[in-house]
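Hello, quick one for you while I still have it in my head. Could you read through the record and tell me how the C-alpha coordinates relate to the sequence? No rush at all, and the record is pasted right below.
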Amino acid sequence: MRSDLFSADNLEKESAQPGLRLQNSKLLKAELNGEFMARTGSMVAYQGQVQFEALGSGGLGKFLKQKLTGEGVPLMRVSGRGDVFLAERAADIHLIDLEPGDALSINGANVLAFDSTLQYDIKMVQGAGMMSNAGLFNCVFTGYGRIAVTTKGSPVVLSVDQPTYVDPQAAICWSANLQTGYHRAEQLGLGTLLGRTTGERFTMSFAGQGFVVVQPSEEPPGGLAGAGSGQQQQQGGLLGGLLG
Protein backbone atom coordinates (compact mmCIF):
# COMPACT_ATOMS: atom_id res chain seq x y z
CA MET A 1 0.00 0.00 0.00
CA ARG A 2 1.40 3.41 -0.98
CA SER A 3 0.32 6.91 0.04
CA ASP A 4 1.82 10.22 1.14
CA LEU A 5 -0.15 9.57 4.32
CA PHE A 6 2.55 7.07 5.32
CA SER A 7 5.43 9.52 4.89
CA ALA A 8 8.04 9.82 7.65
CA ASP A 9 6.48 13.11 8.78
CA ASN A 10 3.32 11.28 9.87
CA LEU A 11 4.91 8.23 11.48
CA GLU A 12 4.97 7.97 15.27
CA LYS A 13 8.07 9.58 16.76
CA GLU A 14 9.96 7.39 19.25
CA SER A 15 12.14 8.44 22.16
CA ALA A 16 14.09 6.58 24.81
CA GLN A 17 13.08 9.06 27.53
CA PRO A 18 9.59 9.17 29.13
CA GLY A 19 7.67 12.43 29.30
CA LEU A 20 5.69 14.97 27.29
CA ARG A 21 6.90 15.85 23.78
CA LEU A 22 5.40 16.97 20.47
CA GLN A 23 4.37 14.42 17.87
CA ASN A 24 3.63 17.40 15.63
CA SER A 25 2.44 20.98 16.11
CA LYS A 26 -1.11 19.90 16.97
CA LEU A 27 -0.57 16.54 18.66
CA LEU A 28 1.07 15.86 22.02
CA LYS A 29 2.69 12.51 22.77
CA ALA A 30 3.26 11.33 26.33
CA GLU A 31 5.68 8.44 26.65
CA LEU A 32 4.27 7.20 29.91
CA ASN A 33 6.10 5.39 32.68
CA GLY A 34 4.35 6.65 35.80
CA GLU A 35 1.72 9.38 35.65
CA PHE A 36 0.89 12.88 34.39
CA MET A 37 -2.13 15.19 34.42
CA ALA A 38 -4.21 16.05 31.34
CA ARG A 39 -7.32 17.96 30.38
CA THR A 40 -10.39 15.71 30.56
CA GLY A 41 -11.37 14.43 27.11
CA SER A 42 -8.10 15.39 25.41
CA MET A 43 -6.92 11.82 24.73
CA VAL A 44 -7.19 10.86 21.05
CA ALA A 45 -5.27 7.54 21.10
CA TYR A 46 -3.10 5.38 23.35
CA GLN A 47 -1.09 2.18 23.33
CA GLY A 48 -0.10 -0.01 26.26
CA GLN A 49 -1.44 -0.39 29.77
CA VAL A 50 -2.90 3.02 30.61
CA GLN A 51 -5.49 4.09 33.17
CA PHE A 52 -7.53 7.32 33.21
CA GLU A 53 -8.94 8.76 36.44
CA ALA A 54 -11.16 11.85 36.50
CA LEU A 55 -10.11 14.40 39.13
CA GLY A 56 -12.49 17.31 38.59
CA SER A 57 -10.39 20.43 39.15
CA GLY A 58 -7.63 18.71 41.08
CA GLY A 59 -8.91 18.68 44.69
CA LEU A 60 -11.78 20.00 46.79
CA GLY A 61 -10.33 23.48 47.22
CA LYS A 62 -9.73 23.88 43.49
CA PHE A 63 -13.17 22.37 42.77
CA LEU A 64 -14.89 25.01 44.93
CA LYS A 65 -12.82 27.78 43.38
CA GLN A 66 -13.66 26.58 39.87
CA LYS A 67 -17.38 26.49 40.68
CA LEU A 68 -17.27 30.08 41.95
CA THR A 69 -14.92 31.53 39.34
CA GLY A 70 -15.72 29.44 36.27
CA GLU A 71 -11.98 28.98 35.77
CA GLY A 72 -9.66 26.06 36.32
CA VAL A 73 -8.78 22.88 34.48
CA PRO A 74 -11.07 19.80 34.39
CA LEU A 75 -8.38 17.19 34.97
CA MET A 76 -7.74 13.49 34.63
CA ARG A 77 -4.78 11.55 36.00
CA VAL A 78 -3.16 9.36 33.34
CA SER A 79 -1.05 6.52 34.74
CA GLY A 80 0.58 3.27 33.66
CA ARG A 81 3.04 2.43 30.93
CA GLY A 82 2.60 3.15 27.23
CA ASP A 83 2.12 5.97 24.73
CA VAL A 84 -0.72 8.50 25.01
CA PHE A 85 -1.66 11.05 22.35
CA LEU A 86 -3.56 14.23 23.22
CA ALA A 87 -5.02 17.14 21.28
CA GLU A 88 -7.53 19.96 21.74
CA ARG A 89 -9.62 20.91 18.68
CA ALA A 90 -6.54 20.93 16.42
CA ALA A 91 -5.06 23.86 18.38
CA ASP A 92 -1.32 24.52 18.22
CA ILE A 93 0.57 22.97 21.15
CA HIS A 94 3.64 24.42 22.87
CA LEU A 95 5.82 22.97 25.64
CA ILE A 96 7.13 25.03 28.56
CA ASP A 97 9.66 23.71 31.07
CA LEU A 98 9.36 25.23 34.55
CA GLU A 99 12.34 25.36 36.88
CA PRO A 100 12.32 25.79 40.67
CA GLY A 101 11.42 29.39 41.41
CA ASP A 102 9.43 29.88 38.17
CA ALA A 103 5.75 30.79 38.27
CA LEU A 104 3.48 30.87 35.21
CA SER A 105 0.00 32.42 35.14
CA ILE A 106 -2.11 30.79 32.44
CA ASN A 107 -5.69 30.77 31.24
CA GLY A 108 -7.09 27.41 32.35
CA ALA A 109 -8.70 26.91 28.94
CA ASN A 110 -5.21 26.73 27.40
CA VAL A 111 -3.82 24.00 29.67
CA LEU A 112 -3.55 20.64 27.87
CA ALA A 113 -1.30 18.50 30.09
CA PHE A 114 1.44 18.79 32.68
CA ASP A 115 3.82 16.73 34.77
CA SER A 116 2.44 15.65 38.14
CA THR A 117 5.51 17.25 39.76
CA LEU A 118 4.01 20.69 39.07
CA GLN A 119 1.59 22.42 41.46
CA TYR A 120 -1.13 24.86 40.48
CA ASP A 121 -3.76 27.03 42.10
CA ILE A 122 -6.56 29.30 40.90
CA LYS A 123 -5.68 32.93 41.58
CA MET A 124 -7.37 36.26 40.97
CA VAL A 125 -5.71 38.34 38.24
CA GLN A 126 -4.93 41.45 40.23
CA GLY A 127 -6.35 44.67 38.85
CA ALA A 128 -7.49 43.13 35.55
CA GLY A 129 -10.77 42.22 33.97
CA MET A 130 -13.29 43.96 36.22
CA MET A 131 -14.24 46.40 33.46
CA SER A 132 -14.06 43.86 30.62
CA ASN A 133 -15.79 40.57 29.86
CA ALA A 134 -12.56 38.62 30.34
CA GLY A 135 -12.12 36.14 33.14
CA LEU A 136 -10.78 37.44 36.45
CA PHE A 137 -8.95 34.27 37.40
CA ASN A 138 -6.00 32.29 36.08
CA CYS A 139 -4.18 29.09 36.99
CA VAL A 140 -0.74 29.74 38.48
CA PHE A 141 1.75 26.89 38.01
CA THR A 142 4.90 26.45 40.10
CA GLY A 143 7.45 23.73 40.73
CA TYR A 144 9.62 21.65 38.43
CA GLY A 145 8.31 19.99 35.28
CA ARG A 146 6.83 20.42 31.81
CA ILE A 147 3.47 21.84 30.82
CA ALA A 148 1.76 21.73 27.41
CA VAL A 149 -0.32 24.79 26.48
CA THR A 150 -2.51 25.43 23.45
CA THR A 151 -2.95 28.48 21.24
CA LYS A 152 -5.20 29.24 18.31
CA GLY A 153 -2.59 30.04 15.69
CA SER A 154 1.09 30.84 16.08
CA PRO A 155 1.61 33.13 19.09
CA VAL A 156 3.98 36.00 19.73
CA VAL A 157 6.02 36.16 22.96
CA LEU A 158 6.35 39.76 24.13
CA SER A 159 9.20 40.73 26.44
CA VAL A 160 7.82 43.10 29.05
CA ASP A 161 10.57 45.69 29.27
CA GLN A 162 8.27 48.66 28.68
CA PRO A 163 4.54 49.32 29.29
CA THR A 164 2.73 46.47 27.52
CA TYR A 165 -0.98 46.18 26.70
CA VAL A 166 -2.80 43.06 25.46
CA ASP A 167 -6.39 42.24 24.58
CA PRO A 168 -7.47 40.09 27.56
CA GLN A 169 -9.05 37.55 25.21
CA ALA A 170 -5.74 37.06 23.38
CA ALA A 171 -3.49 36.76 26.44
CA ILE A 172 -2.59 33.10 26.96
CA CYS A 173 -0.06 33.17 29.77
CA TRP A 174 2.52 35.39 31.39
CA SER A 175 5.22 35.51 34.05
CA ALA A 176 3.33 35.39 37.35
CA ASN A 177 5.60 38.06 38.87
CA LEU A 178 4.31 40.73 36.45
CA GLN A 179 2.01 43.44 37.75
CA THR A 180 -1.31 43.41 35.91
CA GLY A 181 -4.03 45.99 35.54
CA TYR A 182 -6.49 47.29 32.98
CA HIS A 183 -6.16 50.21 30.62
CA ARG A 184 -8.87 52.11 28.77
CA ALA A 185 -7.75 51.90 25.15
CA GLU A 186 -10.73 53.68 23.59
CA GLN A 187 -11.35 57.32 24.35
CA LEU A 188 -14.89 58.34 25.25
CA GLY A 189 -16.46 60.91 22.96
CA LEU A 190 -19.41 61.79 20.76
CA GLY A 191 -18.77 58.76 18.55
CA THR A 192 -19.06 56.45 21.55
CA LEU A 193 -22.35 58.06 22.55
CA LEU A 194 -23.66 57.51 19.03
CA GLY A 195 -22.82 53.81 19.24
CA ARG A 196 -19.59 53.90 17.25
CA THR A 197 -16.80 51.92 18.91
CA THR A 198 -13.41 50.52 17.99
CA GLY A 199 -14.11 47.23 19.76
CA GLU A 200 -10.97 47.82 21.87
CA ARG A 201 -12.41 49.48 24.98
CA PHE A 202 -10.11 47.85 27.53
CA THR A 203 -6.77 46.08 27.43
CA MET A 204 -4.73 44.31 30.09
CA SER A 205 -1.62 46.16 31.19
CA PHE A 206 1.63 44.45 32.23
CA ALA A 207 4.57 45.94 34.08
CA GLY A 208 7.79 44.55 35.52
CA GLN A 209 10.23 42.08 34.02
CA GLY A 210 8.96 38.99 32.23
CA PHE A 211 6.99 37.87 29.19
CA VAL A 212 3.44 37.62 27.87
CA VAL A 213 2.30 35.02 25.30
CA VAL A 214 -0.33 36.40 22.90
CA GLN A 215 -2.30 34.32 20.39
CA PRO A 216 -3.58 35.74 17.06
CA SER A 217 -7.20 35.20 18.08
CA GLU A 218 -9.60 36.86 20.47
CA GLU A 219 -11.34 33.85 21.97
CA PRO A 220 -14.28 34.48 24.29
CA PRO A 221 -12.93 33.46 27.70
CA GLY A 222 -14.53 30.78 29.82
CA GLY A 223 -16.10 31.29 33.18
CA LEU A 224 -17.14 34.91 33.54
CA ALA A 225 -17.57 35.60 29.81
CA GLY A 226 -20.64 37.69 29.21
CA ALA A 227 -21.29 38.20 32.93
CA GLY A 228 -22.31 41.66 33.99
CA SER A 229 -20.08 43.69 36.29
CA GLY A 230 -22.54 43.23 39.16
CA GLN A 231 -22.33 39.47 38.88
CA GLN A 232 -18.53 39.65 38.67
CA GLN A 233 -18.34 41.79 41.81
CA GLN A 234 -20.69 39.42 43.65
CA GLN A 235 -18.55 36.43 42.72
CA GLY A 236 -15.43 38.37 43.70
CA GLY A 237 -16.96 38.97 47.14
CA LEU A 238 -17.73 35.29 47.60
CA LEU A 239 -14.10 34.51 46.89
CA GLY A 240 -12.68 36.98 49.37
CA GLY A 241 -11.81 34.37 51.96
CA LEU A 242 -11.17 31.52 49.53
CA LEU A 243 -8.51 32.80 47.16
CA GLY A 244 -4.95 33.48 48.26
Remarks:
- The first helix runs from residue 60 to 69.
- The two ends are 59 Å apart (CA to CA).
- Confidence is low (pLDDT under 50) at residues 129-134, 188-199, 221-244.
- The chain has three helices and 16 strands.
